[in-house]
Amino acid sequence: MTVPSTVVATDEVAEALAAGRPVVALESTIISHGMPYPQNVAMATEVEDIVRDHGAMPATIAVLAGVPKVGLSPEDLELLASDPSVVKASVRDLPSIIARKGHGATTVAATMRLASLAGIRVFVTGGLGGVHRGAATSFDVSADLTELSTTPVCVVCAGVKSILDIGLTLEKLETLGVPVLVDGSDEFPSFYSRGSGFAAPLRADGPEEIARAMDAAWSLGLTSGLVVAHPIPVADEIAASEMDPVIARALADLDARGIGGRDATPYLLGRIVELTDGRSLTANIALVRENARVGAEIAVRYAALSAASSPDPA
Ligand code: PSU
Ligand code: MN
Q: pTM for the whole thing?
């Protein structure tokens, strides 16, 4: 498909899309507000290489000087990783950032929206936003969930961190009609750990089956995205029993500082890295690498299916 003028794709991304070749979107909040410098820029570069090595074109997405960009240069990645003027951009923030010609690092929600506009159907990240613990009184529910209900993109992640209420996040996704597939497991993963105590809402085994589910979803006229939760590799896992006290402490510190709104998730992510002396960061990078491989494999299979048959949801 042709990329509309509302988003600006690099030549190689535009050519891949026009030819129906596999493309994988990558988000930028994880770079600017999810990991410290310089591990963040190293991770962003490496993940692009992994996607290429597995036969797909990477397209990291962000708003730079007011331009929604699909595919970034090494200089763009460095800026996102290190420039303090980059703001966290969810969907509702995009109009203002564009109008003011600012820099925005896109969340899962905003990246889905821009990816979908460009015609990209597979998106790789680490963790989704969701229903925060205490949401019954704080009302803090990530716009990632509402975006998943309206935007036809398959989001590959490692589940959700237990900084969130995992059970309520799964309930909300059910209400919104979003298929949640766990790749190769009957249990929903919790980011650092392969398990969470919650059953997989649906199971899928491997990229071919996932690509067929995407195709089926959109052939049925579903307007939503899909969540593919791929558990962290065994070798990189941190046991939930080890993470639980760390997360409890990070949440208590969040409360004590009175931090909320869009700053809550970045604060918690940074605090967890501090409290684990960087061990959580190593696990986080490992799972994003793994997801990049899985996402590329899904994109390759989905491109082959689309070439053979059905109309694109856009
Ligand atoms: N969870 C993580 N790592 C992240 C994020 C969430 O484990 O980097 C980022 C993603 O960009 C996600 C955003 O879309 O935080 C959610 O923020 P909020 O809860 O404010 O919607
Ligand atoms: Mn929130």
A: 0.97
